[in-house]
Amino acid sequence: MNYVHGYSTRESIRLVDQATTLAELLHNDTIYSAGRTVLEAGCGVGAQTVILAKNNPQAHFTSIDISQTSLQAAATLLAQEHLTNVTLQNADIFALPFPLESFDHIFVCFVLEHLEDPIAALRCLQPVLKRGGSITVIEGDHGSAYFHPESQLASRTIQCLIDIQKKLGGNSLIGRQLYPLLNHAGFENIKISPRMVYTDSSRPDLVEGFTRNTFIAMVEGVREQALTWRLMNENQWDTGIADLYTSTSDDGVFCYTFFKGTAIRG
Questions:
Q1: CATH numbers and ranges of domains, the chain
Q2: Residue of 24, 145, 214, 241 with fewest CB within 10 Å of its CB?
Q3: Crossing angle for the helix pair 68-80 and 47-55, nearest 10 degrees?
Q4: What is the DSSP string of the chain?
């Protein structure tokens, strides 16, 4: 897996900001009964893990990630929140160390976009899910971003992120593909729910937490790659980012859509 955003401290902060800002939008209906076991595949720095564990204190989560560095950050975050219903484990989605039908539920958030073969990943996850158990998958779709005031250069900076992630083997447009992905992986009773984030100056928390600290920060993170690969020149990039920030002004508007899919193992 090539994680396009890197593993910097700034990226860890961005992930926590994102999770906190979007907690209600993305997780209000992710509810697991007491005693249920949940595999969180690709937990990263634990940004989503904390929210899941808090919202479902009587469920037990096994949260795995391929990066030991990310798991260390997750352990620190869980300790700070005094959460004890999570077990962290270094593991690869494509080589899971669990017996068949080990978990009641599976949760995957912002992971498939970074994988060259997301269907294969879903097929690897399916055997460790109990029959009748659910899988929840959440992904964004950078092609869904639109904003006011409009700017061609701002749009190009977003396209740079899309193109760079594609060159690294990922897919930042994957949100719109959740239904066919889950279907081809063999899951049943698939339900997809679009979750739009809309921000304007009447919603300052979302402007700060999502538009600035989540989305624009994510785009800014590929600056060096965009310039090195000559997708834009320095002046174009800086102007585009500045234009993107105008969507956070008093007259600015920004929209973005996440997609949440749930399905059952038959």
A1: 9-264 (3.40.50.150)
A2: 24
A3: 40
A4: ---TT-S-HHHHHHHHHHHHHHHHHHHTT----TT-EEEEE--TTSHHHHHHHHH-TTSEEEEEES-HHHHHHHHHHHHHTT--SEEEEE-BTTB--S-TT-EEEEEEES-GGG-S-HHHHHHHHGGGEEEEEEEEEEEE-GGG-EEES--HHHHHHHHHHHHHHHHTT--TTGGGGHHHHHHHTT-EEEEEEEEEEEEETT-HHHIIIIIIIIIIHHHHTTHHHHHHTTSS-HHHHHHHHHHHHGGGSTT-EEEEEEEEEEEE--
Angle at Cα 209 formed by Cα 207 and Cα 212, nearest 5°?
60
What pLDDT, in 10s, does the model give residues 145-190? 999 999 999 999 999 999 999 999 999 999 999 999 999 999 999 9
Question: Cα 256–169–178 angle (5° rounding)?
Answer: 45
Nearest to 26 by CA among 139, 174, 127, 102: 139
Closest to 65 in 3D by CA, of 119, 9, 109: 109
198-240 per-position pLDDT tens digit: 999 999 999 999 999 999 999 999 999 999 999 999 999 999 9
**The two structure tokens encoding residue 161:** 């992120």
